[in-house]
Specification:
Elements: E1 2-6, H1 10-23, E2 28-31, E3 43-46, E4 62-65, H2 71-74, E5 85-86, H3 91-109, H4 112-120, E6 136-140, H5 144-155, E7 159-164, E8 173-177, H6 182-186, E9 191-194, H7 208-212, E10 218-222, H8 231-239, E11 243-248, E12 268-270, H9 280-297
Parallel strand pairs: 1-2, 1-3, 3-4, 4-5, 6-7, 6-9, 7-8, 9-10, 10-11, 11-12
Helix pairs in contact: 1-9, 3-5
The chain binds NADP nicotinamide-adenine-dinucleotide phosphate.
NADP nicotinamide-adenine-dinucleotide phosphate binds at residues 67-69, 89, 93, 141-146, 163-166, 195-199, 201-202, 223-225, 249-250, 273, 275-277, 310.
Length: 310
């Protein structure tokens, strides 16, 4: 079997080629830029592939996304139709996202940004906030990462809601499903966490229209994908007080350009797409296991539904 690897940085590609080669004895693992005869490539392993790269491999069995989302693969306008896409998911990724979501929900809940501003002014400013059961927190998207994050928040005592496409039952979480229930989900939701996949239905969902349906001074955490957010609408909602604070881990353009207004906004916390970065060692083992399973059985449990977009 032969796998060809591409990530946007040459040194990263080479590192992944060597690491996967060590985990797949008997296979040939190459860089996508030097694949030999393209017709001999069985699997493409990619993060943000370049348009047309994958279409060169006419006998591809599957594409592996180095990450939980497949939007970066579907963005290739020349992607060959019908080739299965395997997501990279695992307990490490879920654990990291649970930690990130708990950290930032608690930060907003306890108003840490304001507390830190008071410290900078040597101001003994005691902020009293409601206890967690009196704080309503909502998680959009109840997949691998959203469901685990919602249950973590419920475990901390928050009045936790979740929103998904199809109905769910999650212990400790009040679940809403479908666009018809979005208003009900948002009504009274003081801290909103986005963990939706990026699809045609969800692009731009974090907009002025949605912010207006949250209570005044709500907080928003986007740790899914940058294009879920309409940047100007967030700035306007923060500036007029509809939103109080935001935490953003993902952006339309990454790295976030140095002159982007998010960097210096007093009510925005920026993190550099680290909420649940794949640990290369663990990710490599998951990918190798998926490749071996797929080569043996013709499928594996992490195949995404490309038509659905996630
Ligand atoms: N920041 C980071 O470091 C990082 C790391 C990894 C992943 N991510 C991102 O995190 C997000 C979540 O990943 P995941 O693996 O948890 O996703 P997932 O397992 O594919 O789950 C997606 C969830 O969103 C729901 N959903 C999809 N479309 C919807 C719609 N139109 N309306 C309502 N609900 C909808 C799905 O509902 P059903 O269950 O009913 O289908 C499902 O519950 C993705 O955007 C991913 O790219 C970010």
């Amino acid at each position: 079997m032969k796998a060809a690897v591409y990530l946007p940085a040459d040194d990263k590609t080479q590192w992944w080629v060597e690491m996967l080669q060590s985990l797949l004895p008997g296979w040939e693992v190459t860089s996508m830029d030097h694949p030999g005869d393209p017709a001999t490539v069985d699997f493409a392993v990619v993060w943000r592939p370049r348009t047309g790269d994958i279409a060169r491999f006419e006998n591809l069995k599957a594409i592996v996304s180095i990450g939980a989302g497949i939007d970066h693969v579907l963005a290739d306008m020349e992607l060959p139709a019908g080739v299965p896409i395997i997501r990279t998911v695992g307990s490490d990724l879920t654990q990291r996202m649970r930690e990130y979501v708990a950290l930032h929900v608690l930060r907003h809940h306890r108003d840490m940004p304001r507390q830190l501003r008071a410290q900078a002014e040597a101001d003994w400013h005691a902020i009293v906030v409601p206890v967690a059961p009196n704080r309503t927190v909502g998680v959009m998207g109840l997949g691998n990462l959203g469901a685990a994050s919602a249950q973590t928040l419920a475990g901390l005592g928050f009045a936790t809601r979740g929103w998904s496409k199809s109905p769910k039952t999650l212990h400790g979480v009040t679940c809403f499903a479908g666009i018809d229930c979005l208003d009900q989900f948002l009504d009274g939701c003081e801290i909103l966490v986005n963990l939706l996949p990026l699809t045609d239905e969800t692009r731009g969902i974090l907009s002025a229209d949605l912010f207006a349906r949250l209570p005044r001074e709500a907080c928003v955490i986007n740790c899914a994908r940058g294009p879920h957010l309409v940047d100007e609408d967030l700035l306007a909602a923060l500036n007029d007080g509809q939103l109080k604070q935001a935490t953003l881990d993902v952006f339309h353009q990454e790295p976030l350009p140095a002159d982007h207004p998010f960097w210096n906004h007093p009510d925005i916390t920026v993190t550099p797409h680290v909420a649940s970065q794949i640990d290369a060692g663990t990710g490599g083992r998951i990918i190798a296991a998926n490749l071996l399973e797929y080569a043996r059985t013709g499928t594996c449990s992490d195949v995404a539904d490309a038509a659905r977009g996630y």
